[in-house]
Amino acid sequence: MLLSRYGLREWLSITIVCAVIGTVCAAIGWWWAFGGAGVIWIGLAGFFRDPFRKVPTDLPGGTMLSPADGTVSKVLRVDHHEATGGPAVIVRIFLSVLNVHINRSPCDGEVSALKHVPGKYYDARREISAAENESNLITLCIGGDETIGVRQVSGAIARRIVCPLQTGDRLSRGQKFGMIKFGSTTELILPRPDDVEVLVAEGDKVRAGLTRLARLKPKS
Fold this sequence. Notes:
Elements: H1 8-27, H2 31-45, E1 63-65, E2 70-81, E3 86-95, E4 102-104, E5 109-117, H3 127-132, E6 135-143, E7 146-153, E8 161-162, E9 170-171, E10 176-180, E11 184-191, E12 196-198, E13 205-206, E14 212-216
Antiparallel strand pairs: 1-14, 2-3, 2-13, 3-11, 4-10, 5-6, 5-9, 6-7, 7-11, 8-10, 12-14
């Protein structure tokens, strides 16, 4: 099982603790406890798994891939969003503790802005969490003066958003750029709502770097 470098501190600590417990249990003949330590390691370390993804390349122009694994919890339009500088479509994805938590870029683009906002830690399944929880907004310039956003939102358990990006960094479609530790939410924010074709519906399961989430039509 390949584990993410973003969780190195956590899964390494888990490995050491479980190894010590397993060794002690084996030494005193508690084989059932030894097996239990192994199960616990698989369960906890598995959260930081980083499976190989073959990002599709034969995509129509303007196609946006999912930035996260999980379930589409909301698709909505807003009159204004700071990531787009105007009206926007937001596709919100809920990540349970069982999902892969690596975030990936929905398209090619350059990081034009980053904004971390401290906040609460409501359960990510609650509507209020999207508005009031700790979040990190990544604004990507995708050509000319057009921008889109990817927003990482913490949950009740997730207390650390990982995003090593800096302004000016270039991302390619499907490229890994961080994660949110334990249950959380990720949003894709697109401009020109009338030119956005959403390819998923609420309740759909999606996978980062693989699922086609939406298509942004070229400017007329």
